[in-house]
Design a protein that fits this description.
This protein has 463 residues and is mostly helical. Helices cover 50% and strands 3% of the residues. The strands form two sheets. It has a two-stranded parallel ribbon with strand order 1-2. A hairpin with a 2-residue loop joins strand 3 and strand 4. About 21% of the residues have low confidence.
């Protein structure tokens, strides 16, 4: 018998409470990590559940399947038509430099995105119909890229690798290719509709290809796959970098507007220089033919040096307010990095195919690099004399005998793991020198000598 004083039970509220989606429920929805739902953190190394908090459960479950109705159909709105979940995410993200977006809304969207929501959005973008041919669609994806490569986001390393795994799929690489090949990129994007900002968008995209999460990824093939997109689109990338950086240097400002209003700030100029330098270093080291395929890349180190010189000597209007001491340290670091890039470019550009030359009726193949080898590897005479004077061969060839029980003349007899005598020996290890004409116990220009040097150096680095 029912109690007349008891209010009727709301079956909808009861169902919602059981499912964990009601207004007063503390239970997470299906496929959501319980630890992350309650505390905001997850101690698992690899968690197969979505990382969502109660505030983001509604938006995330709508796309990931948590808000689907019977039969796996999408939820319907009041008019009886299914809601387009993809369009619900179209206006999220940083909305990079769209002229119709207010500066206040854009500044708000620059905040880091929750990793669980980002993975849900990537599921949508990395699908067959996730095109980003329109700028409002590119905003959320650029915001996710910013979270991957930015140290200021609260993403764990696992979250970054999961996002990179999505972007490394076939459809994910298509999305990145569409961003790299964007038709209109400018440093004054807010004055032109549907134009991506270089400071707020394009440089963020380029930074993805040289960020620590990608470069230090255990899966080296993933980094090579994504950098192949740079190789395919470098003509566009190189021209836009030069045009945009020249524009900011000529205007002595990195701002999109001439006013110092609440308009969102882009990446500081020194970070742009570092991103462009690091991108080219990683790209050229993996694609040795880049200087031949794109001759304009040989001038990039000169451009970077010119931009750094202007930034270090002029008062460019920049979001970063640096003291003279901090700026001096950054200038020194950038000079070293640019010098390293110049060395790599000079080295790779001389590694051209051997050119045939006619000498007394005989065709000789001599590369440009082999002709300059003596100048490139010239060693200080004092150091060379010191190495020759202090040289002591390995193993039984040494005058006083082996240094320890793992000191042998043949690398075949050396164990990779060091022995106790080797670790406690007070005598210096035998480390062969690598310069030309360096003393060695094996014949010069022999394969045995090359293998001996490589083995000993790699083992020493390992130990």
């Amino acid at each position: 018998m029912s109690n007349p004083h008891r209010p009727p039970r709301n079956r909808n509220n009861a169902n919602n409470a059981n499912n964990g989606t009601g207004p007063g429920s503390n239970r997470p929805p299906r496929d959501v990590c319980h630890d992350f739902w309650r505390t905001g953190t997850c101690s698992r190394t690899t968690c197969r559940f979505r990382h969502e908090r109660p505030a983001t459960a509604t938006a995330a479950s709508a796309t990931a399947g948590g808000g689907r109705g019977r039969g796996g159909q999408s939820p319907m709105n009041g008019a009886g038509t299914r809601t387009n979940v993809r369009s619900s995410f179209a206006n999220q993200g940083i909305n990079t430099a769209i002229g119709t977006v207010s500066s206040g809304g854009m500044a708000q969207n620059l905040q880091p995105m929750d990793a669980g929501v980002a993975m849900t959005i990537l599921e949508n973008y990395c699908g067959p119909s996730g095109s980003v041919t329109e700028l409002p669609r590119a905003g959320p994806l650029i915001r996710i890229i910013n979270c991957i490569m930015s140290k200021g986001s609260n993403w764990r390393s696992e979250d970054r690798q999961d996002a990179l795994q999505k972007l490394a799929t076939n459809h994910g690489k298509l999305r990145l290719q569409e961003l790299l090949e964007w038709e209109n990129v400018s440093t004054k994007a807010e004055t032109v509709s549907q134009t991506m900002s270089f400071q707020l968008g394009y440089i963020v995209i380029l930074s993805l290809f040289c960020c620590e999460a990608l470069v230090d990824c255990p899966l080296r093939g993933r980094c090579n796959e994504l950098l192949s997109l740079v190789h395919q689109s470098y003509t566009t990338i190189g021209s836009r970098i030069v045009a945009s950086m020249d524009s900011m240097v000529n205007n002595l400002s990195t701002r999109e507007t001439d006013t110092r209003s609440t308009h969102p700030e882009g990446m500081p100029f020194h970070q742009m220089l570092q991103a462009v330098t690091s991108l080219h270093k990683e790209y050229i080291q993996r694609f040795k033919t880049a200087p031949e395929d794109y001759p304009q890349i040989k001038d990039m180190s000169d451009h970077l040096g010119r931009w750094l010189s202007v930034w270090s000597t002029n008062s460019i209007s920049d979001p970063a307010e640096l003291s003279a001491q901090d700026k001096g340290r950054l200038v020194s670091k950038l000079k070293r990095d640019i010098g390293h890039l110049s060395t790599i470019l000079g080295r790779e550009s001389t590694c051209v195919a051997p050119q045939p030359t006619l000498n007394n009726g005989t065709i000789n193949y001599t590369s440009e690099r082999s002709r300059d080898r003596s100048d490139e590897f010239e060693v200080n005479p004092t150091i060379k004399e010191l190495v020759i004077r202090t040289f002591m061969p390995p193993g039984h060839l040494r005058e006083g005998g082996p240094r320890h029980d793992n000191d042998h003349a043949s690398v075949v007899d050396i164990t990779i793991s060091p022995t106790q005598q080797e670790l406690t020996s007070l005598l210096p290890q035998y480390i062969p020198a690598t310069f030309h004409d360096a003393p060695h116990h094996l014949p010069m220009h022999s394969m045995d000598r090359l293998l001996d040097i490589q083995f000993r150096l790699l083992r020493e680095e390992l130990v």
